[in-house]
Write a structure and sequence with these properties.
This protein has 238 residues and is mainly alpha-helical. The protein is built from eleven helices and two strands. It has two domains: 19-85, Winged helix-like DNA-binding domain superfamily/Winged helix DNA-binding domain (Arc Repressor Mutant, subunit A, Orthogonal Bundle), CATH 1.10.10; 90-228, GntR ligand-binding domain-like (Four Helix Bundle (Hemerythrin (Met), subunit A), Up-down Bundle).
């Protein structure tokens, strides 16, 4: 739950440096991604290079590279050389949640046997940083949560010491789960609940308890799996 391609970003750093002006490609990438994330660009919208260059204050060349990266992540879809914001069906989103729950649950169980005190401290720092924005729903807070959450999950995958697990999980975690929910349903990101579950995962890892770590991680992911849109709307009326 990933600036640059989030799964490949440094576990302790956001995708772009703070305090320095981002390169045109990064500015284009982050601007387009943010617009998709917060609904300014909606599923199915045509991603015109000219329009996006004007939107991000760049030129078509960095926009083209940004769109290539977004297509690799799954946020953009290429059809006959044209790019569109990806449309996810509810069924596709459910599959992605289930795959991540299995892969990351197993990764957490492996990490419990190898994680170091320093890595546990780094996870604890991520939990503390997320705690600062618990209960908030502003675009900036959600974006910060996405970055910190991706770093939290990436740290656990790194702690497995397994190249195979990193390669298997990278494509699955490229799309933040909270973003997938926003594609198919109207539901706020529950930062407080997510971070409470992060603490449970951290506790299990601290005890080097593989079974509890795996269950805590898979439960964490599945707890955010969306209901069908009609079901969600019905529950709101109830």
């Amino acid at each position: 739950m990933n600036g640059g391609k989030q799964a490949s970003a440094s576990p302790d750093q956001p995708s772009s440096g703070r305090g320095t002006a981002p390169r045109p490609v990064e500015r284009a990438y982050e601007g387009i991604r943010r617009a998709i994330l917060f609904g300014e660009l909606k599923p199915g919208d045509h991603l015109s290079e000219e329009m996006l260059a004007a939107m991000t204050g760049t030129s078509r060349t960095p926009v083209r590279e940004a769109l290539r990266r977004l297509a690799v992540e799954g946020l953009a879809t290429v059809i006959n050389r044209h790019r569109f914001v990806t449309e996810f069906s509810y069924e596709e989103v459910v599959v992605i949640f289930d795959i991540r729950a299995k892969l990351e649950g197993y990764a957490a169980s492996v990490a419990a046997q190898h994680i170091t005190a320093e890595e546990l401290s780094r996870l604890e720092r991520k939990i503390a940083e997320i705690a600062e924005i618990e209960g908030q729903q502003t675009p900036d807070a959600v974006e910060r949560f996405l970055n910190l959450n991706a770093q939290f999950h990436a740290l656990i995958i790194e702690a497995t010491r397994s190249r195979q697990l990193r390669q298997l999980t990278e494509p699955a975690v490229a799309l933040p789960l909270v973003l997938l929910k926003q594609f198919v349903m109207e539901q706020n990101v529950d930062i407080t609940r997510s971070n409470r579950q992060h603490r449970d995962i951290h506790d299990a890892l601290s005890q080097h308890n593989s079974e509890c770590a795996g269950l805590a991680m898979s439960g964490h992911i599945l707890s955010a799996k969306p209901k069908p849109r009609d079901s969600y709307r019905g529950s709101r009326k109830a």
